[in-house]
Every structure is written in C-alpha cells, then in structure tokens.
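To whoever is on call:

I kicked off a structure prediction for a single chain this morning and the downstream step that reads the tokens threw a length-mismatch warning. I double-checked the sequence; it's 114 residues and nothing unusual in it as far as I can see. Pasting both halves so you can look.
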Amino acid sequence: MKKKLLGLFYLTSFGTVFADEGVAIANPLEGSGITSIGGLLEVIISGVTYVAIPVIVLAFIWAGFKFVSAQGNSSEISKARSVFLYTLAGAAIILGSNVILEVVVNTSDKLLTP
C-alpha cells in the first residue's frame, strides 16, 4: 500500500514540477497544408481510394473468374454472385465516401459559421 501511495505521489509531483504554462503543442500537419479535420479526412480518404481502386479491379476479375470456373454448378455460381455483390457494395462505399465526406464537411461548416 505504501508503495502505491509513494508511486502516486511521484506521478503527481512530476506533473506539477515540470508543468509550464508557456508550452504549446505544435501542429504536426502544419507544413502539409492540412488545417482542419475535414482536410485530414480528405487526405486519408483519397489515399484509401488510391489504394482500393486496384484491389476493386482485381476483385471484379476474381468474381468473373469464379463465374467462368463455376461451369453451371449452382452452388459455385451463387458463391461467385456473392463475391461480385460484395465487391460491388465495397466499391460503392469506397467511391461514395468522397461524396459523404463533402456533405458532412459542408454541413458542419455551415452549422459552425455564424
């Protein structure tokens, strides 16, 4: 018990001894031109979209390969159909994320400006 109290004392005294009111946290994204959370989200979403487009193309090719290799087998065709539909849904979400971001950022900007 004494060790816990002593450790707690050291932690609290360390924060009060070295606390300085003049210390400011610098923006790590200052040099990149990102000044808002919306700007940061735009950069993240554009990066994800840039990486996801080739993956989406490969997934569509894989779905087409699954359709061709099914050779009339109904269970394999249903698996290929589900791969195609999931790929289509993922592509719609990733490609539509830019539109969703713009709507959210524009709405929040209009609500926050007087």
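Update from on-call: the warning came from a stale cache, not from the record. Cleared it. Sanity check on the structure: The chain has a mean pLDDT of 82.
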